[in-house]
Amino acid sequence: MTDPHVPAQSPPLPAAAPSKRERQLWMDLLRGLAILLVIAFHSVTILERHSYAVPLWMRDFNQLFVLYRMPTLVFLSGLLLAGSFGKGIVLYLLGKGRRIFWPLLVWSLIYSLIVGPPVDGPGQLFKYLSGQSYLWFLTFIFLYYLAAIPLRRLSPLLVAAAALGIAILAPDGSKNGERLFYLMAFFFLGSWAGGHWALWMRVVRSRAALLGWIVIAGASAAAVVWQLRYGPVHVVPALCFIVAVSATACRMEGARGCAPLIFMGQNSLIFYVSHFPAIYIVMGVCRALGVEAAEAATLIAFPLALLAGLLLALAARVSRIVDLLFVAPAPPQRVVGALQAVEKRLAFV
């Protein structure tokens, strides 16, 4: 996902925001790590869908990162918001529609065919598009981009603080309450960081940023012992993770061993939308073939899901048909021009 939502190709940002090289060498590294943790998470949770007994150590491994996975992905999405309005609202909406809503729609339909229930009418389709599948992240990101339009003249820090306040007041564990607004806070924190790029880079390049690993170690241990889940109570460990891992990524950006994670980060949308169906299919085959050990099923499904993402990412570069799974066709230029003319007349920007 090279867009915040995680698409592979994002529009260039102004000088104040991260350059393309910096995005590849540390932002994409961090995004790739977060996507890898999401895939690892589903490699465990999908076991139960196929009646596997999940070992405790596998659950505990996932718990080590439960406080950080999604806040980090959402923060990275917000980082790219700063330069998004430069060409007007029409192009902004078209870009988000083509690169977020379209793959949400396409892969919701694929999910309905592979996992189910199938789409038998507008009601079931709306359930999927409103976030009732593993694709809820795309739904949330799309909503945040829409909300950014009327909120764009406000300070991102103010919006983040308001969202966090709503999350605190929302019912505990509510997906469209606490979770929606808690992650919204990270989106606009990312937007603030993207708009104050020089300051953000001074923070992550400082030695003090690495002290966040102390908080991460303690919070991860607590998450395992007390089975914590991410939410507004644990905003500080999540922020420490973002800062400390960003600082570490900046220092490791040139290492050869980081290349696979950077590639995943640059193609994060593809890895994100494709991994769940791939894992589900592979684990179903494992169960049908008599593979009884959950560990064995995971060790088979996890690398095959990564392989599926890799092959799709490479195929999307050379095949327009494959690319349509992830990016909608561009509308005719005449249509875009007409919409931009209306935008100017309404003085919308």
Describe the oligomeric state of these chains in a short phrase. Answer: single chain
Give the mean pLDDT: 91
Strand content: under 5%
Number of strands: 0
Number of helical segments with 4 or more residues? 16
Structural class of the helix and strand makeup? mainly alpha
Could you explain the architecture of this structure?
Residues 1-16 have low confidence and may be disordered. This protein starts with 19 loop residues before the first helix and ends with a helix. Helix content is 70%, strand content 0%. It is globular and about 65 Å long. It has one domain. The protein is built from 16 helices and no strands. With 349 residues, the chain is mainly alpha-helical.
Features:
mainly alpha; 16 helices; disordered N terminus
Short description:
The protein is mainly α and 349 residues long. The chain has 16 helices and no strands. It has one domain.
